[in-house]
Amino acid sequence: MSQDRKKAVVLLSGGLDSATALAVARRDGFACHALTIAYGQRHAVEVAAACRVAKALGAVEHRVLNLDLRVFGGSALTADLPVPRDRAEEEMSAGIPITYVPARNTIFLSLALGWAEVLESFDVYIGVNIIDFSGYPDCRPEFVTAFERLANLATKAGVEGKGTFRIHAPLVQLSKVEIIRLGQSLGVDFGLTHSCYDPTPDGAACGHCDACKLRRVGFEAAGVPDPTRYAAGA
């Protein structure tokens, strides 16, 4: 029963990576408490995807927290800025793109850490990945390690020695192909997930943003059918 298992908080965006991270946490034997942040992102359809994924992968609890980062903007995902389209792989890896949301993973991990402390859990999972992605600074192993140190310094549970917080980033060094194959082996239904940064009003993937291109190439290279519903002509 779930009350007999150790608890973990899993950040769940509704995308391919976070769904696989949830499946890994379940494989690792944790009772998974999924946390989704509705942060005013233009691709808010991913919140509905997160709800589908949490249910399908047996999260014991799923909470959606509203935190509107549009008040700051600074990103094509939270402000009226164009999402880059049809960029070559070299261009995607050349610098930090406008789809970077300032301090997003720092904010998200802080919220997950707060919930974990209330749950008396010392394990937080996040699906960050530095390979085959756009070079976001808060997806790097160095960031995960630094936040883990902070978690143990900044919490009552950590200071009192009740346990040691661990930030699990099981996908951080995996390619998109490896993530897809891992997720498939763990029973992830990728048809429930959403990755597109600039979906159509009915939720179809644009097929042209960085996230769509990386997802599509990943499925092709993995030899796995791509279940994504793309917009007409994409």
What is this structure, in a nutshell?
With 234 residues, the chain is an alpha/beta fold. It has helices at 16-27, 45-56, 89-92, 104-119, 141-153, 156-159, 176-185, 210-222; strands at residues 7-11, 31-38, 61-66, 123-125, 166-168.
Written account of the structure:
With 234 residues, this protein is an alpha/beta fold. It has a single domain, classed as 3-Layer(aba) Sandwich (Rossmann fold), CATH 3.40.50. Helices cover 36% and strands 11% of the residues. Strands 3-2-1-4-5 form a five-stranded parallel beta sheet, with helices on both faces. Helix 1 packs across helix 7 (176-185) and helix 7 packs across helix 8. The longest helix is centred in the middle third of the chain and has 16 residues, at 104-119. The chain is globular. The model has no long low-confidence stretch (mean pLDDT 94).
Furnish the topology, listing elements before pairings.
Blueprint: E1 7-11, H1 16-27, E2 31-38, H2 45-56, E3 61-66, H3 89-92, H4 104-119, E4 123-125, H5 141-153, H6 156-159, E5 166-168, H7 176-185, H8 210-222
Parallel strand pairs: 1-2, 1-4, 2-3, 4-5
Helix pairs in contact: 1-7, 7-8
Shape: globular
The average pLDDT is 94
Kindly state the percentage of residues in helix.
25-40%
What spatial order of strands do you see in the largest sheet?
3-2-1-4-5
CATH class: Alpha Beta
Count up the domains. Answer: 1
